[in-house]
Amino acid sequence: MAHALLQNPSPLLPTQGAPRQAASNAKPPHLAFEAFEGLAPETDNAQAPVSALADQSVFDEITEGLLQQPATISPKYFYDQLGSELFESITRLPEYYPTRTEHAVMQQHAAAIADAVGHGRTLIELGAGNCEKARTLCRTLAPACFVGVDISADFLQDAVARMREEFPGMDARAVGADMTRGVTLPADIPRTGRLVFYPGSSIGNFDPPHALMLLKQMRDLVDGEGEPHANGGLLIGIDLPKDVDVLEAAYDDAAGVTAAFNLNVLTHVNRLIGSNFDPAQWRHLAFFNTLQSRIEMHLQAMSPLQVRWQGGGVRDFAAGECIHTENSYKYTLPAFTDLLARAGFSRAQAWTDPRGWFAVVHAQP
Fold it and tell me: Sign of the C-alpha dihedral, residues 242, 290, 339, 335?
């Protein structure tokens, strides 16, 4: 779950791979998440003052998505402070297997991964969040420098501060950036021995053409932003195909935490564009699209409604109409290796769990 650019979503709930209807999914986020004290989202949907709005490019991106047929909101806007905290809670749910399965792969194959990757590197984690996965990797690789990159800059600053405390001999930096628009690192970050770390299967949130574009950007970071250097690499997690019931439960948990996470994007968008979304008027939907080999997440209007935003923008939604908020593609290893090759990574090695649910891939130019 993270940043994504959506491709051809359906405005109404498709019949292909239709989701199970969990009762909790009809609840607004403050009810769906009531068991998690202190993390309930704000319910005030008043229009934001002009001074609180996002910069023009973000405003334009969100409003253009809302005016599409069907409407979309990029999942990178999940990650305000509350969204980041909600996602942390999702990773601890019994249904959400990717985080613990990836961790198990990293633990089981730690020595082999360290041998392949090498020590003393500059570790660059994209979508770093709370830096927990990088923290585990740092204990194994002992990098000289760590750079956490995330769109949620405030959340990231706190996480990187904790990294500095735990690894006092390591140069730890925080870079607040939207990775879908490219990442520029500080000029003094070493250009040799870079390891780009992109865990959590977040590459699956991009449709294949945009995943390829992002992998090419990672290749540029490995090379020192356009200057080819030896000894760079990419360490990336991918979620593999598996039973549909397992996949759908991971994105539609019984406690309603993922529902709260999905619905919270509306509150964040209200702050960014001065809109008047009411999360109580929407419900969370998640299902596996077999033809596309991807989980889809949507927000579905429970009755006819109208949404307005700053500057006079307006969009009417019919009952049952959806906003597409996320995809999560499930790649086979051969398909993903081919994608890596097209991005300029000619060598790849993978480690998986015994069930073949998840893979950690090390790729080099």
Answer: positive
N-to-C CA span, the chain: 27
Distance CA 248, CA 294 (A): 10
Q: Which of 360, 333, 349, 357 is nearest to 137 (CA)?
A: 360
Whether residue 150 contacts residue 222, with contact meaning beta carbons closer than 8 Å, is answered with: no
Name residue 324's beta-bridge partners: 72, 298
Cα–Cα distance between 195 and 60 in angstroms, integer? 34
Q: What is the 3-class SS of the chain, one letter each residue?
A: CCCCCCCCCCCECCCCCCCCCCHHHHCCHHHHCCCCCCCCCCCCCCCCCHHHCCCHHHHHHHHHHHHCCCEECCHHHHCCHHHHHHHHHHHCCCCCHHHHHHHHHHHHCHHHHHHHHCCCCEEEEECCCCCHHHHHHHHHHCCCEEEEEECCHHHHHHHHHHHHHHCCCCEEEEEECCHHHCCCCCCCCCCCCEEEEECCCHHHHCCHHHHHHHHHHHHHHHCCCCCCCCCCEEEEEEECCCCHHHHHHHCCCCCCHHHHHHHHHHHHHHHHHCCCCCHHHEEEEEEEECCCCEEEEEEEECCCEEEEECCCEEEEECCCEEEEEEEEECCCHHHHHHHHHHCCCCEEEEEECCCCCEEEEEEEC
Give the integer Cα–Cα distance in Å for 319 and 269.
Answer: 21
Residue 305 tokens, joined: 């409604």
Whether the ω angle into residue 11 lies within 30 degrees of 0, i.e. cis, is: no
Q: What is the maximum span of the chain, computed from C-alpha positions, in angstroms? A: 58
Residues, the chain, total? 365
With CA atoms as reference, report the closest residue to 2 among 242, 300, 204.
204
210 pLDDT exceeds 60? yes
Mean per-residue pLDDT of the chain: 86
- Tokens at 9, concatenated: 């979503």
Query: pLDDT by residue (tens digit) across 46-74?
Result: 444 333 566 899 999 999 999 999 999 99
Residue in 152, 255, 129 with CA at minimum distance from that of residue 199: 129
Could you tell me the pTM of the whole model? Answer: 0.81
